């Protein structure tokens, strides 16, 4: 009998059913899901419109090389164009966030003819070799070195290093506006503005990784919109497929036109089911005003958390945007996550000391009020223990 290689910690429950903001285990117990598969189920588990669109496409064509045209791809592009800034003319679909990062790094070196790639402390961009080379945490890198050469790590939110480090030898700078795995650290407006200015000055490519922050979670379709910054390459994933594995890379004309056939490829990338998932997810995003709802519910969540947690001394800070929430603690949050699960709430960790909440946009006000009370009680209980 084969054994599944468990590369994530087993949470000790078997999930049998999922719908909207809830999942049920094999014992019939219901959980409020604020883990959402590391943020994938932002549009809710088994969103009916997304499921129906995928099932409809399955009855026609399930898999097809992008060498062949298919109607659903054109339909996806038409709808997706409504939520992407006008400067982006080219789009390419892959299967995971790491793959999108890999392609972005390849594009940067190909287009600029340079080698150096800059990333930041506490960054996380994936676990494949290229993505891992721009991921800061040593626990992910250990045992896999040497990684890509000519990468350079700078301090996140530190303006003092930018002018010296980002130079005429730099191919790309890759940045998360909120570091999802690294601690829900939020980039300052000054930091992002300086990176945009400097990359333009030296002709380097600015890659913004919105695989976790994008597609409505942070209260706007793209978090970069809130900064007034348009990167040279924009990466999306997780929520954009509504639960189907897909990632997207967006490029302007001056970059996309330089990518030759054969420069990259993917057996499954851009398959008809992925196109159907992205089309349907985008329609949900537009038709149900998802970013606005994430903004409003996020504001409520932050307000209640700050009120309920303000006197709990092991709470350092509450930060994030929209429905991407981090509670920075003075202790490691593993026990809190376990206790929350026992109370019927699924959450996850970010960085070393941050309790991370990634609820779907369909979470209700009643859910939020309940979750805040349980979270406050659970965190407070750790003081005496």
Automatic annotation (TrEMBL):
<dbReference type="InterPro" id="IPR005814">
    <property type="entry name" value="Aminotrans_3"/>
</dbReference>
<keyword id="KW-0457">Lysine biosynthesis</keyword>
<feature type="binding site">
    <location>
        <position position="267"/>
    </location>
    <ligand>
        <name>pyridoxal 5'-phosphate</name>
    </ligand>
</feature>
<feature type="binding site">
    <location>
        <position position="127"/>
    </location>
    <ligand>
        <name>substrate</name>
    </ligand>
</feature>
<keyword id="KW-0055">Arginine biosynthesis</keyword>
<dbReference type="InterPro" id="IPR015422">
    <property type="entry name" value="PyrdxlP-dep_Trfase_small"/>
</dbReference>
<dbReference type="InterPro" id="IPR015424">
    <property type="entry name" value="PyrdxlP-dep_Trfase"/>
</dbReference>
<comment type="similarity">
    <text>Belongs to the class-III pyridoxal-phosphate-dependent aminotransferase family. LysJ subfamily.</text>
</comment>
<comment type="function">
    <text>Involved in both the arginine and lysine biosynthetic pathways.</text>
</comment>
<dbReference type="Pfam" id="PF00202">
    <property type="entry name" value="Aminotran_3"/>
</dbReference>
<feature type="binding site">
    <location>
        <position position="124"/>
    </location>
    <ligand>
        <name>pyridoxal 5'-phosphate</name>
    </ligand>
</feature>
<dbReference type="InterPro" id="IPR037537">
    <property type="entry name" value="LysJ"/>
</dbReference>
<dbReference type="GO" id="GO:0042450">
    <property type="term" value="P:L-arginine biosynthetic process via ornithine"/>
</dbReference>
<feature type="modified residue" description="N6-(pyridoxal phosphate)lysine">
    <location>
        <position position="238"/>
    </location>
</feature>
<dbReference type="InterPro" id="IPR015421">
    <property type="entry name" value="PyrdxlP-dep_Trfase_major"/>
</dbReference>
<keyword id="KW-0028">Amino-acid biosynthesis</keyword>
<keyword id="KW-0663">Pyridoxal phosphate</keyword>
<dbReference type="InterPro" id="IPR049704">
    <property type="entry name" value="Aminotrans_3_PPA_site"/>
</dbReference>
<dbReference type="GO" id="GO:0030170">
    <property type="term" value="F:pyridoxal phosphate binding"/>
</dbReference>
<comment type="pathway">
    <text>Amino-acid biosynthesis; L-arginine biosynthesis.</text>
</comment>
<comment type="subunit">
    <text>Homodimer.</text>
</comment>
<feature type="binding site">
    <location>
        <begin position="209"/>
        <end position="212"/>
    </location>
    <ligand>
        <name>pyridoxal 5'-phosphate</name>
    </ligand>
</feature>
<protein>
    <recommendedName>
        <fullName>Putative [LysW]-aminoadipate semialdehyde/glutamate semialdehyde transaminase</fullName>
        <ecNumber>2.6.1.118</ecNumber>
        <ecNumber>2.6.1.124</ecNumber>
    </recommendedName>
</protein>
<dbReference type="GO" id="GO:0005737">
    <property type="term" value="C:cytoplasm"/>
</dbReference>
<dbReference type="GO" id="GO:0019878">
    <property type="term" value="P:lysine biosynthetic process via aminoadipic acid"/>
</dbReference>
<keyword id="KW-0808">Transferase</keyword>
<keyword id="KW-0032">Aminotransferase</keyword>
<keyword id="KW-0963">Cytoplasm</keyword>
<dbReference type="InterPro" id="IPR050103">
    <property type="entry name" value="Class-III_PLP-dep_AT"/>
</dbReference>
<dbReference type="GO" id="GO:0008483">
    <property type="term" value="F:transaminase activity"/>
</dbReference>
<comment type="pathway">
    <text>Amino-acid biosynthesis; L-lysine biosynthesis via AAA pathway; L-lysine from L-alpha-aminoadipate (Thermus route): step 4/5.</text>
</comment>
<feature type="binding site">
    <location>
        <position position="266"/>
    </location>
    <ligand>
        <name>substrate</name>
    </ligand>
</feature>
<dbReference type="GO" id="GO:0042802">
    <property type="term" value="F:identical protein binding"/>
</dbReference>
């Amino acid at each position: 009998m084969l054994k599944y290689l468990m590369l994530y910690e087993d949470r000790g429950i078997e999930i049998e059913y999922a719908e909207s903001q809830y999942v049920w285990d094999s014992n019939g117990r219901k959980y409020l899901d604020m883990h959402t598969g590391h943020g994938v189920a932002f549009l809710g588990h088994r969103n009916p419109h997304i499921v129906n669109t995928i099932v409809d496409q399955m009855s026609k064509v399930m898999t097809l090389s992008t060498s062949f045209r298919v109607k659903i791809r054109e339909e996806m592009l038409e709808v997706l164009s409504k939520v992407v800034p006008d400067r982006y003319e080219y789009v390419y679909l892959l299967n995971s966030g790491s793959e999108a990062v890999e392609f972005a790094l390849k594009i940067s070196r190909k287009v600029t003819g340079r080698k150096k790639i800059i990333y930041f402390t506490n960054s996380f961009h994936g676990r494949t070799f290229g993505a891992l080379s721009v991921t800061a945490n040593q626990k992910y890198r250990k045992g896999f070195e040497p990684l890509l050469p000519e990468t350079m790590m700078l301090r996140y939110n530190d303006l003092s290093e930018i002018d010296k480090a980002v130079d005429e030898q730099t191919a790309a700078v890759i940045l998360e506006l909120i570091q999802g795995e690294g601690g829900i650290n939020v980039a300052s407006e000054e930091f992002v503005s300086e990176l945009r200015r400097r990359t333009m000055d030296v002709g380097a490519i600015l890659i913004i990784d919105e695989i976790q922050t994008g597609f409505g979670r942070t209260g706007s379709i793209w978090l970069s919109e809130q900064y007034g910054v348009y990167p040279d390459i924009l990466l999306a994933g997780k929520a954009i497929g509504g639960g189907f594995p897909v990632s997207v890379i967006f490029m302007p004309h001056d970059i996309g036109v330089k990518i030759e056939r054969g420069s990259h490829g993917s057996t499954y990338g851009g398959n008809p089911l992925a196109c159907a998932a992205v089309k349907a997810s985008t329609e949900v995003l537009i038709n149900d005003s998802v970013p606005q709802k994430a903004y409003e519910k996020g504001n409520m969540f932050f307000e209640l958390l700050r009120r309920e947690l303000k006197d709990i001394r092991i709470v350092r800070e509450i930060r994030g945007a929209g429905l991407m929430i981090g509670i920075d603690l003075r202790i490691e949050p593993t026990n809190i996550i376990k206790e929350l699960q026992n109370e019927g709430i699924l959450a996850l960790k970010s960085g070393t000391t941050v309790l991370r909440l990634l609820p779907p946009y369909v979470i209700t006000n009643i859910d939020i009020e309940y979750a805040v009370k349980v979270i406050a009680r659970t965190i407070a209980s750790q003081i005496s223990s």
